[in-house]
Amino acid sequence: MKNFLFLLYIIFSFEIYSVKNQQQLPPYYPKCYRDDPKLNDCLLKATETVKPFLKRGVPELNFPKLSPFIIPEVSLEQGTSAVNYKAILNNIKIIGLDSYHFRKFEFDVANLRFLGSLDVDDVYIKADYNIQGKILAVPIEGKGVLTANITNSNATVSQQAKLVTKKGVTYLEPEKTVVNIDVGGVQPSFDGLFGGNEILAKATNEVIHDNLKELVEEIKPAIEEVMTRVVQDLIFKSVARIPYDELYPVHGKKT
User: Fold this and answer.
1) CA–CA separation, 126 vs 139, rounded Å?
2) What is the CATH number of the domain that holds 168?
3) Whole-angstrom Cα distance, residue 9 to residue 174?
4) Which end of the chain is more exposed for a tag (fewer CB within 10 A), N or C?
5) Residue 51 to residue 54: CA distance in whole angstroms
6) Please, what's the largest Cα pairwise distance for the chain?
7) Per residue in 94-141, pLDDT tens?
8) For the chain, what is the domain count?
């Protein structure tokens, strides 16, 4: 599920990065005008057009590879009756994010609202982990290597923005972002639980696998909260420096 956090950020704000420090979008990226009746078609097409470039990265824009996508660290924490844990993931490698397909990418210009929905077929995650807590009343602790196969996932992201003017220049600033996710299938494996105690590790992994559906539903709110916060923070940092007329120009208007 963590893979959506970064995929949504990449796709949702790629055009923002693309115009940073330059007046025009790269030649391979469709220019989408906010006064175009087919703006949403343009945005949807753009998500596919940029896919091969995202996959291998865009060095001149300091944009990393989409597959494999490397994340230095992610911290997770949750405390409910079913799941109560603290976890840190390091050196996260995600393979397969380029399998994304947007079903919808809309920008309501009049109300400054974005809405996107996408599917991701198959993703493989490998990371170093350190976890301590309980899952379904079963203790879980240790550090080692986590691997996971995630299939048939989808997500929606909505964002309300506003226009702000600084020194006579108008910028698009996010106000509220909401992310919802749905994971079709997950096959996780924790190597190194309980200091290498194979009996305890096997028992815990079995509990996880036997209760995956329930665990996914329990953990999902925490993941969505983290995703929402990071997506908004990251997009804000990008949008804050890019004029609105450069992000979404108007036909015949000079930027």
Assistant:
1) 22
2) 3.15.10.30
3) 13
4) C
5) 5
6) 70
7) 898 888 899 999 999 999 999 999 898 888 989 999 999 988 888 889
8) 1
